[in-house]
């Protein structure tokens, strides 16, 4: 079931991506379980002119568990909901996930998060979080009780 849904979403995303996002089909894995999305920050925002790359990794549990979505580019947006290691702190990637959501919805949420930000700053505890999570999936924080929307 997972691969069927992932391929359906991939086709839909490639044909109609959210504004400012493009799917890098050269880097996207043949099995479609790993996507690379180029993000161009919206005009009129504090991130205007900046570009990022998101990596989306799916597990066999998708859509019952959210995909892993992280910024992997050298430049990570300095945002109260994004750690300097690229991990994104939004509820739809954690306990707010629902199987009715999809990657387009996640991406629209990320664009909204970036566009509504008024001041560039890292989340509270960024340095300790980023060093303790080095080399780990952001999913690790959910399974070990360290995730909290209030922390960012």
From TrEMBL:
Signal peptide: none annotated. InterPro entries: Ub_conjugating_enzyme, UBC, UBQ-conjugating_enzyme/RWD. GO terms for biological process: protein modification by small protein conjugation. Residues 1-152 form the UBC core domain. It comes from the Eukaryota. Transmembrane segments: none annotated. This is UBC core domain-containing protein. It comes from Steinernema hermaphroditum.
């Amino acid at each position: 079931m997972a691969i069927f849904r992932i391929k359906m979403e991939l086709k839909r995303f490639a044909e109609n991506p959210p504004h400012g996002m493009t799917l890098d089909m050269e880097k996207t894995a043949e099995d479609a379980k790993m996507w690379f999305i180029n993000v161009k920050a919206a005009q009129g925002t504090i991130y205007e002119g900046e570009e990022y790359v998101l990596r989306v990794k799916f597990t066999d549990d998708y859509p019952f568990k959210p995909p892993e979505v992280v910024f992997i580019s050298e430049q990570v947006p300095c945002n109260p909901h994004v750690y300097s290691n690229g991990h994104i702190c939004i509820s739809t990637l954690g306990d707010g996930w629902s199987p009715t959501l999809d990657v387009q919805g996640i991406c629209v949420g990320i664009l909204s998060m970036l566009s509504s930000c008024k001041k560039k700053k890292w989340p509270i505890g960024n340095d300790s979080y980023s060093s303790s999570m080095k080399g780990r999936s952001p999913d690790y924080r959910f399974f070990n009780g360290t995730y909290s929307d209030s922390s960012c």
